[in-house]
Specification:
By secondary structure, the chain is of the alpha/beta class. The chain contains 24 helices and 18 strands.
Length: about 550
């Protein structure tokens, strides 16, 4: 039996019995009460007419004495029946209203709507578990890039907040315990178009359980988990979790990149859509002050020490967080007081990092430090997305927003993982190579945020190219970058990266032939990919791009497109 039907029968059993008994008594009484015809003879109402009369009398639709005017006994029983049936209806309606407000029934209906919405998803989609700050930014970013998302969270307030968001795509949501396997199955984990599960629940043990459940229920689905504990991360890895993200290591790596490799950081922000291409930062070299020695501070401190950067740590409770490793100086305090900053040598320092887990303290640290040393290079850690306006108004040199960095990284892992490989290869090549890419791409594409896309040579992304390669025809990278309107002109785009088996190639040669299975990363002006897809999908367009001989079919299609 359906859970909805079972719940309705269980909750409405008593009011239905009350209504049936009330109607039965009223009908039986009307049949037994004697009446008087026009000629003075006695008569009794039959059951059909009694049921007809009680039906419109009980619902107070109207009143009429049929088929003859009632006797005193019949009118007396009609009065009794009115109160009897109306009270029964009041009781039944009250139970129905209470049932509509019943949390269990509402949860069942919500689950039904959720499962129906998930079944209606025909495009690839991702499951996001946990709609906190990171989850909200991730969902917004994915949806704006045309990706379908399903959200599960046990916090009803978060789910309600998502329902109020004005997003370009509908996002099915469910308020339920995500650690239950049935909930993951309702979210579509076993569906063939489910591409990944992202576990962003607050507790690391919940994310561990999600990673294990996902790999057991659907081994082919990609699993991305957040973990702040090394032991939990190791346990996740044992279940072949695809990506395990340590938020504090991610924050510190991004901040260290901004300080140590400003050109790479500028390139990263530009390609990931964080802002227009601008001048790289020029952080000073010398003594730095790090306020906050929690998990984020420790991760950043290790990176600064590895580069030999002199660092002074300010921590309010070093007996709890631990003292810095090595011979680094540690000053006890919050950093919001001038005396603490003076003791740390703020007047001789070149930069300061406000890296506590409190946004108010971080802003206070920077304001106090700025009054003591106006030439300081200021770096702020932003913990809550709702405080973005405050940090924007203060305008430090670098703002590291925890949730934004995590959301961007996860989006890249889901949508364009090759972009992360490209940036890692550029980082390995050095800051000089990053500067060359920044200058070259900026000169070619301008400073506006570019469109970045990743394709795989095969039947899914490039069916026309795949068919040509199976026919042993030569297709080069330059061929698919030609304009289908005039093959003598190239599209405003460039190939950044080629992944072939285990080989990784930066700026691949345009004359090199492509192979099935190649993965390519492109960057170009907005809208270039729509024009490039014509040659990837249609045989006659690809023939024109390769050989320069347009067929009649191609000319007709091109004229229609133009």
């Amino acid at each position: 039996m359906s859970p909805v039907v079972h719940l309705l029968l269980r909750q409405l059993r008593a009011p239905m019995l009350v209504l049936i008994v009330a109607y039965a008594v009223a009908i039986l009484g009307m049949v037994l009460m004697p009446g008087v015809k026009d000629d003075g003879s006695e008569w009794h109402m039959d059951f059909f007419h009694a049921f007809y009369f009680v039906s419109y009398m009980a619902t107070t639709i109207g009143f009429g004495e049929i088929p003859y005017p009632f006797s005193a006994a019949q009118r007396l029983w009609a009065v009794i029946s009115v109160y009897l049936t109306v009270v029964a209806w009041f009781y039944a309606i009250g139970k129905i209203v209470a049932l509509v407000q019943d949390a269990t029934l509402r949860q069942v209906f919500a689950e039904r709507r959720f499962m129906r919405a998930v079944r209606n998803l025909t495009d690839p989609f991702y499951i996001v578990v946990g709609y906190g700050q990171t989850g909200a930014l991730l969902v917004e970013s994915l949806v704006k890039h045309g990706r379908h998302v399903v959200v599960v969270d046990k916090d009803a307030e978060r789910i309600n907040n998502l329902a109020l968001r004005d997003l370009p795509l509908y996002v099915p949501t469910l308020c339920a315990d995500p650690s239950l396997p049935d909930v993951l199955k309702m979210a579509g984990l076993r569906r063939p178009n489910c591409k990944a599960l992202v576990a962003l629940a607050g507790a690391g043990t919940v994310n561990l359980h999600l990673a294990i459940s996902a790999k057991l229920l659907n081994p082919r689905v990609r699993v991305i988990c957040r973990s702040e504990s090394q032991s939990i991360a190791d346990n996740m890895a044992s279940f072949n979790t695809d990506h395990i993200i340590d938020p504090f290591d991610t924050f510190s790596r991004r901040l260290f990149t901004a300080l140590h490799s400003p050109c790479l950081d500028t390139l990263y922000s530009w390609l990931t859509g964080r802002g227009m291409l601008g001048e790289p930062l020029d952080p000073p070299h010398g003594k730095w002050i790090l306020c906050g020695y929690g998990r984020f501070g420790k991760a950043l401190y290790r990176r600064l020490q590895a580069e030999g950067i002199e660092t002074v740590v300010i921590e309010a409770t070093p007996e709890k967080t631990g003292w810095p490793e090595g011979d680094a100086e540690c000053v006890k305090g919050r950093g919001t007081e001038a005396v603490t900053l003076e003791e740390a040598g703020v007047r001789e320092a070149v930069g300061i990092v406000a890296g506590t887990d409190d946004d108010t303290n971080n802003l206070s640290i920077l304001m106090t430090a700025g009054m003591l040393n106006p030439d300081l290079f200021m770096v702020a850690r932003q913990n809550r997305h709702t405080n973005a306006e405050l940090f924007k108004t203060f305008d430090p040199d670098v703002v590291v927003e925890n949730s934004r960095i995590l959301a961007d990284r996860i989006r890249l892992l889901l949508a364009t993982p090759l972009l992360l490989e490209f940036l890692a290869a550029v980082r390995h090549s050095g800051e000089r190579r990053a500067r060359e890419y920044t200058a070259g791409l900026g000169g070619l594409l301008g400073e506006a945020v570019p469109e970045v896309c990743e394709i795989s040579i095969g039947d899914n992304d490039t069916p026309a190219v795949a068919r040509a390669l199976r026919a042993e025809r030569k297709v080069c990278l330059d061929d698919i970058l030609r304009s289908f309107r005039d093959r003598r002109r190239n599209l405003p785009a460039v190939a950044l990266f080629l992944a072939r088996d285990r080989d990784r190639v930066l700026s691949p040669d345009g004359g090199a032939p492509l192979r099935c299975g190649d993965r390519l990363l492109f960057c170009g002006v907005r809208g270039f990919f729509e024009r490039m897809r014509w040659g990837l999908l249609r045989d006659e367009v690809l023939d024109y791009l390769i050989e320069g001989k347009p067929t009649r079919t191609f000319l007709i299609s091109r004229e229609g497109r133009t």
